[in-house]
Amino acid sequence: MILAHGIGGRSDLPVPLWLALYASAGAVAVSFVAVSLLWTTSRLRGSSAGIAVPTGVARLVDSRGTRLLLQAAGLAALLTLLGAGWFGPDESSDNPAPTWLYAWFWLGVPAASLLLGPVYRVANPVRTLARLVRRDVRRDGAPTWIPIAGLAAFLWLELVYPDSDSPRVVAVFVTAYVLVHIAAALRFGDECDGFAVYFDLVARLAPIGRRDDGRLVVRNPLDGLIAGPPPAISVVVLLLGGTTFDGVTRLPFWIDLRGGLARPEAVALGTVGLAATVAAVAGGYAGAIALTRPYLRKGVSAPAAAFAHSLVPIVVGYAVAHYFSFAVFQGQAGWRLLPDLFGGTGSRIDYTVVSTTTIAVVQIGGIVAGHILGVIAAHDRAVDILRRGYVKVGQFPMLALMVVYTMVGIVLVSSS
Amino acid sequence: MRIASVAGACAIAMSLVACGHDDPGTVAETTTNAAAPAVVPTLRVEGGEAVGGVQTLAADLGANVSFDVVSDEADELHIHGYDKTVDLAAGTPTRVDFVADIPGVFEIELHHAGTEIAQLRVGG
Fold this sequence. Notes:
The complex is a heterodimer of chains A (416) and B (124).
Chain A: E1 10-11, H1 17-37, E2 51-52, H2 55-61, H3 64-87, H4 97-116, H5 119-123, H6 125-133, H7 145-159, H8 167-188, H9 194-203, E3 208-210, E4 216-218, H10 221-226, H11 233-248, H12 252-258, H13 263-292, H14 303-306, H15 312-330, H16 333-336, H17 338-341, H18 356-385, H19 391-414
Antiparallel strand pairs in A: 2-4, 3-4
Chain B: H1 2-13, E1 42-46, E2 49-50, E3 55-60, E4 64-71, E5 75-79, E6 84-88, E7 94-99, E8 104-110, E9 116-123
Parallel strand pairs in B: 1-4, 3-9
Antiparallel strand pairs in B: 1-2, 4-7, 5-6, 5-8, 8-9
C-alpha cells in the first residue's frame, strides 16, 4: 500500500513476464488435474481430522498462564499504539504508530495466525476489555453486517482516505473502533469484530488446530479450512476486493486518473473504485454460483456458503503477493522509528534485506499456492454436493472463477 | 552505515557485474561518469502539479540518476526509499543527481503540495 507521504512510497517492480506466464499456465493446468484426476468422493474430514500434539505441549498452550500472557500482550500493544498515536509526533515519518497498525497488526497478525492458528482470539484486546466489563459475552450469533462494516471502514481508511498515515488519524480510528466494538460485543457477542473474523479465517489455514474432541492437533490446512461453520462469503469477497483494489491503484492508468484531482474528488474516485472492485469480485462469485446451481443435488440449499471457504486461500495468497515487501520493508519502521517518539532520530529502512527476485517469487508463489489450495478445497466440496454424472461439468463455473481471480492477481503484480 | 557501504561496493563492481542483480541472463550497462546521458530530463511543476501528469524515470540498478526539477512555487522534493529531500526555489531549475542503488518503484513527491510528480523505477 502507498499511504500519503510517510509510509510506503516504495512499490514492487513488475514480476517478470516469463514468470507470470509460467505461473498462469501452471495454475490452469493444476485446475484441470484437480477436476479430472483427483478423488471422486469427499476426502477432507474437517474438525475430526488431525494428529494430537503431545499432552505437554497441549497443556502449555491451553494453560491459564499462556492465556493471561497473550491477553496482557494484546492489551499492552493496544495501549502502546494509542499512546504513540495520540501523544507522539504527528508525522508518520517520526512516529511508528501508523506502521504498527498497517504493517504489524493488519499484516503481522494474519501471518502469525497462518502459522500458529487463532492466537488473536485470545490476544484480541477488544475481547479482553469487553470481558472486563461483563464476564458472559456471547461467542457467536452476531449479525454479519457488523464485522463487514468494521472491515470496510478500515479498508476505506487504508486505501482511500488521503491522510491515512497520520498518527492522529490512526489514533482516532483505533480508539473509535475499540469503543464501538466493546459496545457491540456486549450487545451482540464476539463475532462483531471484523479484524477478529478475518484473522480467524486465516487461522483456519494453520497447520495446527483443535479437533472436535477438544484435542490440540496438527492437521492438513485443508481440513482446518472446513472445520467450523462456513465463513461469511461477504467478508471473504470484501477482503479479496480490497486487496485487488490496492493493486489497481498502482497501475499507471489509475495514477494518471488520480493525478490532478483535488482532494474531495480523489476521495470520491477512490471510494467508487473500492466499491466497484468489491462489487466486481462479488459479481463474479454470484455468477459462478448461479451457473453451479443446476448441478446441485436435491436438498443442497446454500451453494454460496458451501464454496465460501474455498476462496480463503486465494484471499491469503493475494495478501501475500501484495503486502510481502511492504511488511518486510515498512515493517522495519515499527522499531526504527522508536527513537523518534522521544525526540531522537531513528535509522533508515534497509531495502536490501530481500532481493527483487525473491519478492517476485514470493508474489507469484503466494498467488499460485492460494489458487491450488482453493481449487482442491472447492473440488472436495463439489464431489459432495454435485449430482452424480455432473460432477465434472458442475465444477467448471467455480474453476473458471478461480482461474479469473488468479489471472487478475498475476496481471496486477506483473503490470504495475 | 550499511546502505552507504553497499552503494560503494556497487559503484566499484558496476563495470564487472550487475550488483544486487540475481538474474544471470542480463549484463549490466556499463556506465561511467563521463558517459552520463547527454539529455537530462526535466520535471516541470505548475501549481503543485506535474505538467503532463505523473512522469516516469527509469534507471538500471547502480546507474546514475540525474534530472532537473523546475517548479513555479517553492517546495521540497522528496524521493521515497532513497529518503532524499531537495529544496526547490520558485522558478529555478534544480539538478538532482544520485546513484540508483535500491531496486523498486519509488514515489517522487512534493512535500508542501502533497502531490506525486514522478515515479522512479530502478530495475533489479
